[in-house]
Write a structure and sequence with these properties.
Elements (H helix, E strand, L loop, with lengths): L3 H16 L19 E5 L5 H12 L3 E5 L6 H5 L23 E9 L2 E2 L1 H9 L6 E8 L6 H12 L3 E9 L5 H15 L2
Parallel strand pairs: 1-2, 1-3, 3-5, 5-6
Antiparallel strand pairs: 3-4
Length: 191
């Protein structure tokens, strides 16, 4: 049987996890004069599920460009080594010019309740200041709402206008079911 202290600790964790997720949806801001309202979709995938998500986004948004973030990071390194704060995954340079895009959508798998190290490297290195940024994270199992606030905090520190962090459940889902979830999330963002 749990002691009263452990029950209180578990209750505090549950309260923190359920209240830490911001439900605020920021509307897509209009681009500065001279910048087209274009969307850049950056995705990292090891299983192909994020490619399905990214292609669904690309099909649903007009005037969008899709690019895969490439890295030689293995899953064990992603899951453990790159979770340490002083490490950063090595990624190949992104070919898209960030100045041409007002909106950026990042598609990433969830590893140990965090975003994949290659997308974390994009957040650290890619110029996001003043850009509308949305995250579509795929997971096969469970996730905690604290994930949303951690990712939003990382993006806000980089000067991004965070339009939302959404989880696409891909475990046991067909391609059509995944695309339907993507469509629902994009409608919440304003696309």
């Amino acid at each position: 049987m749990f002691s009263k202290t452990w029950r209180n600790v578990i209750l505090l964790i549950i309260i923190f996890c359920t209240t830490s997720c911001s439900t605020e949806v920021v509307p897509i801001s209009q681009p500065e004069a001279g910048i087209a309202n274009k969307t850049l979709i950056l995705y990292y995938t090891r299983t192909g599920k994020n490619e399905i998500v990214a292609k669904a986004v690309n099909n649903l948004i007009k005037d969008s460009t899709i690019e895969q973030v490439k890295s030689s990071v293995g899953v064990p390194a992603s899951a453990f080594w790159y979770k340490l704060p002083f490490t950063k995954a090595k990624i190949e340079p992104i070919e898209a010019n960030p100045d041409e895009f007002n909106n950026i959508i990042l598609c990433t798998p969830v590893y140990l309740q965090g975003i994949s190290p290659p997308i974390k490297a994009v957040i650290k290195d890619f110029p996001l200041e003043g850009k509308n940024v949305s995250v579509l994270a795929t997971c096969g199992g469970m996730y905690f709402s604290v994930f949303h606030s951690l990712v939003q905090g990382s993006l806000k520190r980089r000067g991004a206008i965070v339009n939302g962090v959404y989880v696409v459940k891909v475990g046991g889902k067909s391609e059509e079911e995944i695309e339907l979830q993507v469509k629902e999330h994009l409608s919440k963002i304003g696309f």
